[in-house]
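Thread: Modeling a multi-component assembly for a lab meeting

Hi all, long-time lurker, first post. My supervisor asked me to bring a structural picture of a complex we are working on to next week's group meeting, and I have zero experience with this. I have the sequence lines for every component (876 residues in total). Could someone generate the structure of the whole assembly? Inputs are pasted exactly as I received them:
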Amino acid sequence: MMKLGAFLPAPGHHVAAWRHPNAYPQGCLDFDYYRRLAQTAERGKFDMIFLSDGAGVRTHYRNAEELSRQGRMVHFEPLTLLSALAVHTTNIGLAATASTSYNEPFNVARKFASLDHLSHGRAGWNVVTSATDAEARNFNLEQQAAHADRYRRSREFIEVVAGLWDSWEDDAFTYDKESGRFFDPDKLHILGHKGEHFSVRGPLNVARPPQGHPVIVQAGSSPDGQAFAAQWAEVVFTVQQTLEQAQDYYRGMRKQIADAGRDPEHVKILPGAFIVIGRTQAEAEDKYETLQDLVDPVLGLSLLTAQLGDIDLSGYPLDEPLPELPPTEGSTSKQQMIYQQAKREGLTLRELYKSVSAGRGHRRLIGTAETIADDLEEWFLNEAADGFNIMPDYLPDGLDDIVELLVPELQRRGLVRTEYDGRTLRDNLGLPRPAFAR
Amino acid sequence: MMKLGAFLPAPGHHVAAWRHPNAYPQGCLDFDYYRRLAQTAERGKFDMIFLSDGAGVRTHYRNAEELSRQGRMVHFEPLTLLSALAVHTTNIGLAATASTSYNEPFNVARKFASLDHLSHGRAGWNVVTSATDAEARNFNLEQQAAHADRYRRSREFIEVVAGLWDSWEDDAFTYDKESGRFFDPDKLHILGHKGEHFSVRGPLNVARPPQGHPVIVQAGSSPDGQAFAAQWAEVVFTVQQTLEQAQDYYRGMRKQIADAGRDPEHVKILPGAFIVIGRTQAEAEDKYETLQDLVDPVLGLSLLTAQLGDIDLSGYPLDEPLPELPPTEGSTSKQQMIYQQAKREGLTLRELYKSVSAGRGHRRLIGTAETIADDLEEWFLNEAADGFNIMPDYLPDGLDDIVELLVPELQRRGLVRTEYDGRTLRDNLGLPRPAFAR
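Re: Modeling a multi-component assembly
Sure thing. I ran the full set together rather than chain by chain. Output:
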């Protein structure tokens, strides 16, 4: 079965989404709006809701006027939101981003373990190292650590987190009123980690999560990111533009997973799919043009700058092809991806920012349920994807339409479920439950 | 009106609570159990739910066998739990503990701002500096920082948090689809904090909280703690055993608040009240004896050790009066409080640990609705308290009985509300909304 994430940043993925007449930009801090989205995604039998996050306002901007053109720089802290959604949903997975650069492993282990208990086994952690200086400046730094250093910290971080999740064996808590023993002392394990970045004794003050470990999601596509994913990820969220590119990535990633001694079937690779859906092709294209016409040029350029890793693009001519770019400490793979897209399609800077504005660098699918299902099916059946992280253009309409039109078409083709397989995210993704590690 | 907090650690405040036949020790990680507790407290028109927290297993223990006698060393991370409770309650305030020693101010500011938006203005932050080496060892330290150093960090920490909450003016977000301006650029304020412990640029990626700032709760009673409370606290949670002691504290605290240039009416002082309630005095005493009989001696001593700040008591004779104790880097005021109690009541170590086991050092009220209401009323009317942080013996029965028996008695006397005053925690506590600070 094709696995589907619902990637749901209010008010949608198109950068002008919030300006759409039907969009509700206040939704970024409105629980009722998010509850409705989550329940819609659950009605569509999505595997999980996916929430991105930044440890600060990440958008590149030169002044407040430029920033004010953005449609999303305030929003719920994602674990706060997912905790609340957990108790208004039943089956859908709940995956949130948390940074290994600006948190402590003990706190992250606790929060995701708590969410996993709260949701009866539906938590996922999207592990990021963060990629902007803007975030670093909220955490006592002038600029972020080098890419390789962030990943070194990240590798130690997740080891500590996984170790803390295994502080208590699954059946450690016996609650034996008679003997006065709350737990079996033989089933407590002190981590006692001492490493380059962290010294963490443990135990965690949360019982082992219902899933053993919450599902690990990873979205880094750089060599460091891929190596991390090969070792740890169970869901890989990736940016892929063409079938061939996606196949190369898919096969390469699965090889790396096998080389790391893991079963590639236990990792679900989900390229992002930015979707504009209509009842007819013309309706979809109209919808897309409506959104594109709402893109403010100042904003478009600002967003592209952020995607390319804080490179100042203000000196480059807008209507000539994109020049060679200097290297960056940001997300280098993303920069390459966007750069290749510009070359491939012969885009000017202006065309590129419009293109990037739409899907934030992700593949755009603009069409009917049938044409979009064709596209997704082709990738799914040809070793390019195990499923997709679905990115609606604007919310809530975009998700409503996907659930009303696209999901039934995929169900008719037998590509996605019509009922949930189980209660946990692992059950639904078909992932094994990690055995206790000591 | 008397203000009431519902201090609700599953399975209750008595250290043997979990062993009571009616207790549900699994409740520590069971949302439905907590939802019922929260809804009961809301039915009782409590001002807020109060959740304590530790950044690790805080109990003093020499080995796993000793630890296994504890009834509560795993539990939900409190913000995870309060986020979920926020969307199953309407009026009751939601106050959680977060440490200034083991978090970053940007993360704490975000989480409480998010909870305040999620709950439409019902969030409170109980600011603690943490007080055990056990927690420090989960955060790259061998032992905790000195008491004074923790408070110095704490003072800078809260300044940063308050500054981040004021990143955006209340009406900054205009969502103006026409002009393409999501917010008014003149209403964004960059913090740009650079201090001894923190460099934090901002802005926060959450809009100004509905309450302006979530309500600040503080529970430190040392001179540093009191100075902190005088400057920042809006609710003070305190341990007081006798009326005279409570009056001294109350008057002294209000004087310090006034000296700090604040209105003492804007700070609510709530001593803890450990309550065992029965329909008759005999029923209450029976209930208490049932719980006391369930205290494991190894556990009692271990708990006392933790309360006194990680002092090893294993060498002292159990049936002689408590000796002079060495100073500690833990919570010195708590140590003094317990020490004074032992002297006053002429307790042996064994008697003291039994006494401390019951209320964790807090004042015990064992009686009927009438006698307990008499006690609370006396303190409330005689400058000893603005209300109480109510600590039920075991849950859920203890809270059920308080809401069924004690609250109606207090209502009959006109001491507590019969309906909520408003929707926000500030409305209900009668606290002003902080003006935008720049």
